[in-house]
């Protein structure tokens, strides 16, 4: 944008954030080295070696832009750092107090709702606009009241609770709504438990999962090192403005748009999977559910494995040791993600499980890739103080880094022997992780079954080595003296966990951790970067390339134009996620992106991930729709990142087909079913789509953030009318499509009817979806203040 400003004759230094912007570098660390006591150092060195160009670019930005704080790599995960350090709850600007709020370029920004801060994830495009002073427009949301009462049973974890809440709210239907938790059950939830529930708001579909500030919030602020005076000011301000919940005061039942209720005592131990976060399975039902998944036809809960192949065992040699795989064998077990590693209760519980298992003689098979990647250095401190880190390491859960790792797809390669055994025998291998997302192809290309679980259950499944187990009836393994060890033998009581948390999680740990973070780390501090206002692009870089989005800008941008005789680039069913559209994980060796990198002298071992290459649009556009599990109806259901070039009937990589259409001057569109674009709030999902030449997406329904991103990149988001879809209209994706748009942008309105006609003489009407529709009416509130305004001025809104 600064380059474009210069080209237009303006002052590039005017491009600066107008609100405080905190950037935490957390998506770059990969769990490459795991079975080593020095894994964290090895991974950090590899991270800096691979990402040196990216880190130098970001460090340049930290000095070139005003109002920006950058937290260096290796510090933690953005949402956990926000929870423990960055969030203010109440801002104090020179004596003027006002509530904290936040927009984040990651959908799990909602984690901060657990601290009583209103905030949610937006696409990078929306966030950049907000930083530059543009208003944030939204539909006035419905607010769902979620009443909690009772107490969790002994041994039930916060993860069990959040997976239960996720399933309930998905069923209730909260897309585009705010959820507010209330009731006497709130007193039983620690702040970290609330943050775990708030974190997964994207998985249950809500914009916000809000917990009001109460005495538990204040206690957490003090525990994490916020000054007593600051906490007192927060309490006084919120009480004065009737925004503080005091359970000792009489309560009036709040009025909400709709209601849902949960007795915490009804929550059971559970996991979710194998392909979606809201597909919860209780532990007691897991074995039966797994066999049903093998039997069911291919879908969210099915793999279509013939009966005679379901119990096949494949034996192989693993570095001199006899090993075996079968459907459901665990090959990745990762304690990862801010969702759970921010919660001392489940982290201490995982350490206690590891300690008991080690003492009883249980071991994790060496071909299972195990890792521990907390979202904050505080976790390491309290695991060390409690003496539990040793036992996690003894079982192979070595500290590999502070970042998202496996949860975002940075799980690293499996041992080649294991990888070959999986691919050569078509094994449905499993990953178990303490993350928040398990969409197909996200965690690892070779794990088709991916389950979300609490950190202690991750340890348990690693010990068992399979998801095909009923823990109530079958032993986890055989311990010392050939004794069968069951789950009940190693699972800690809630009282035991609580005692260790209270004696080992200390305020000084938070203070010392974040004091160290503000000083950076040696590798970051040694980066030498230029100080110019405008970045000097390196034409030979394969990490950072000047993007084309602002090239050739004029002061008079063109208006909308109709889309004529467009071909369908891709035709999808339901639930195509941003992991399908814009994968962030590994770059497949045969992909167009890999070919580009090889052509630019990058060795396969240095491909890194799409997430790490996001500064190079050439790589990113070649990886669009590059998920190996994506199912395109034009290929008759065959999974993979290819499509049919309709005019020639050739089967091509999506990128190659798109470029052929662009070179021939032909527009393209994407057809989809319901819930298109669910998942992470990646702006690249829209940037990549636009770069491929796609002009419109027509879906049965689409997710708010993705829809906003598409609009930001000039791709038209349309939805079929209620009760209609591709099948009811009779569309095959083989037709050409003409979309009749108004001639002026001022004539385009949210909810407007747009007529689409096809080359087969069909005509249907779609809805223009700029935002979520509520009962056919739209209510927008956009507040924009003049640049000269003093924040003390009063504005009557």
From TrEMBL:
Q: Which SUPFAM superfamilies match?
A: Aconitase iron-sulfur domain, LeuD/IlvD-like
Gene3D superfamilies from the UniProt entry: 6.10.190.10, Aconitase, domain 3, Aconitase, domain 4
Q: Which cofactor does it need?
A: [4Fe-4S] cluster
Keywords from UniProt, A to Z, are:
4Fe-4S, Iron, Iron-sulfur, Lyase, Metal-binding
The reactions it catalyses are: citrate = D-threo-isocitrate
Q: Where is the Aconitase/3-isopropylmalate dehydratase large subunit alpha/beta/alpha domain?
A: 1-465
Question: Residue limits of the Aconitase A/isopropylmalate dehydratase small subunit swivel domain?
Answer: 595-721
Which EC number(s) does UniProt give? 4.2.1.3
Q: Which GO terms describe its biological process?
A: oxoacid metabolic process
| Enzyme kind, highest EC tier | lyase
CDD domains from the UniProt entry = AcnA_IRP, AcnA_IRP_Swivel
Return any one Pfam family short name: Aconitase
UniProt superkingdom: Eukaryota
- Single GO term (MF): 4 iron, 4 sulfur cluster binding
The record's similarity note reads: Belongs to the aconitase/IPM isomerase family.
The protein's job, in short, is: Catalyzes the isomerization of citrate to isocitrate via cis-aconitate.
Protein known as: Aconitate hydratase
């Amino acid at each position: 944008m600064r380059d474009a400003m210069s080209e237009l004759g303006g002052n590039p230094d005017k491009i600066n954030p107008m609100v405080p912007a905190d950037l935490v570098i957390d998506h770059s660390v990969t769990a490459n080295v795991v079975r080593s006591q020095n894994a964290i150092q090895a991974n950090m060195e590899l991270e800096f070696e691979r990402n040196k160009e990216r880190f130098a670019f970001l460090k340049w930005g930290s000095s070139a832009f005003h109002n920006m704080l950058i937290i260096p790599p290796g510090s933690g995960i953005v949402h956990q750092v926000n929870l423990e350090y960055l969030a203010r709850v109440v801002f104090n600007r020179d004596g003027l107090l006002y509530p904290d709020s936040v927009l984040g370029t990651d959908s799990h920004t909602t984690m901060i709702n657990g601290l009583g801060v209103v905030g949610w994830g937006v696409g990078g495009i929306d966030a950049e606009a907000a930083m530059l002073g543009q208003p944030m427009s939204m539909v006035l949301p419905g607010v769902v009241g979620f009443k909690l009462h009772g107490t969790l049973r002994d041994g039930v974890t916060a993860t069990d609770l959040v997976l239960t809440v996720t399933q309930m709210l998905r069923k209730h239907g909260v897309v585009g709504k705010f959820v507010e938790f209330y009731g006497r059950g709130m007193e039983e939830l620690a702040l970290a438990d609330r943050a775990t529930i708030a974190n997964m708001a994207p998985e249950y579909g809500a914009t916000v999962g809000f917990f009001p500030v109460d005495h538990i919030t204040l206690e957490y602020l003090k525990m994490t090192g916020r000054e007593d005076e600051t906490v007192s000011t927060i309490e006084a301000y919120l009480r004065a403005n009737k925004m503080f919940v005091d359970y000792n005061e009489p309560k009036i039942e709040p009025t909400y748009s709709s209601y849902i209720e949960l007795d915490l005592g009804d929550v059971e131990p559970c996991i979710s999977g194998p392909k979606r976060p809201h597909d919860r399975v209780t532990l007691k039902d897991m074995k039966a559910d797994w066999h049903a998944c093998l039997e069911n036809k291919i879908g969210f809960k099915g793999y279509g494995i013939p009966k005679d192949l379901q119990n096949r065992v494949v034996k192989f040699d693993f570095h001199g040791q006899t090993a075996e795989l079968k459907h459901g064998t665990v090959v990745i077990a990762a304690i990862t993600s801010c969702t759970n590693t921010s919660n001392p209760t489940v982290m201490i519980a995982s350490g206690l499980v590891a300690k008991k298992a080690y003492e009883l003689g249980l071991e994790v098979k060496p071909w299972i890739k195990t890792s521990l990647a907390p979202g904050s250095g505080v976790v390491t401190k309290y695991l060390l103080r409690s003496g539990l880190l040793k036992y996690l390491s003894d079982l192979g859960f070595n500290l590999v880094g502070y970042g998202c790792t496996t949860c975002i797809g940075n799980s690293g390669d499996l041992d080649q022997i294991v990888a070959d055994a999986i691919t050569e025998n078509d094994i449905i291998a499993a990953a178990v992780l303490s993350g928040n997302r398990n969409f197909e192809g996200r965690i690892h290309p070779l794990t088709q079954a991916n389950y979300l679980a609490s950190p202690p259950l991750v340890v348990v499944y690693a010990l068992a080595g399979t998801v095909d187990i009923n823990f109530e009836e079958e032993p986890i393994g055989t311990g010392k003296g050939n004794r069968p060890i069951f789950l009940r033998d190693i699972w800690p009581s809630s009282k035991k966990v609580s005692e260790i948390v209270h004696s080992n999680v200390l305020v000084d740990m938070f203070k010392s951790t974040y004091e160290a973070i503000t000083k950076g780390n040696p590798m970051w501090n040694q980066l030498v970067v230029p100080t110019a206002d405008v970045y000097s692009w390196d034409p030979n870089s394969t990490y950072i390339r000047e993007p084309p989005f602002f090239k050739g800008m004029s002061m008079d941008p063109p208006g909308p134009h109709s889309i004529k005789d467009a071909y369908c680039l891709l035709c999808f069913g339901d639930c195509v996620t941003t992991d399908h559209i814009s994968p962030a994980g590994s770059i497949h060796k045969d992909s167009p992106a890999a070919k580009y990198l090889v052509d630019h002298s990058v060795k396969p071992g240095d491909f890194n991930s799409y997430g790490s290459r996001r500064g190079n649009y050439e790589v990113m556009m070649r990886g669009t729709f590059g998920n190996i599990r994506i199912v395109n109806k034009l290929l008759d259901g065959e999974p993979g990142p290819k499509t049919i070039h309709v005019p020639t009937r050739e089967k091509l990589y999506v990128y190659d087909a798109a470029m052929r259409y662009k070179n021939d001057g032909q527009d393209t569109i994407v057809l989809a079913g319901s819930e298109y674009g669910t998942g992470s709030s990646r702006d690249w999902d829209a940037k990549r789509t636009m770069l491929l030449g796609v002009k419109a997406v027509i879906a049965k329904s689409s997710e708010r953030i993705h829809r906003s991103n598409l609009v930001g990149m000039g791709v038209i988001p349309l939805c079929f009318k209620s009760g209609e879809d591709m099948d009811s209209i009779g569309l095959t994706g083989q037709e050409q499509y003409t979309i009749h748009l108004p001639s002026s942008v001022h004539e385009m309105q949210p909810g407007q009817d747009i007529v689409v006609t096809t080359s087969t003489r069909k005509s249907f009407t779609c809805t223009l979806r700029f935002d979520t529709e509520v009962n056919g009416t739209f209510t927008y509130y956009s507040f924009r203040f003049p640049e000269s305004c003093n924040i003390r001025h009063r504005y009557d809104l």
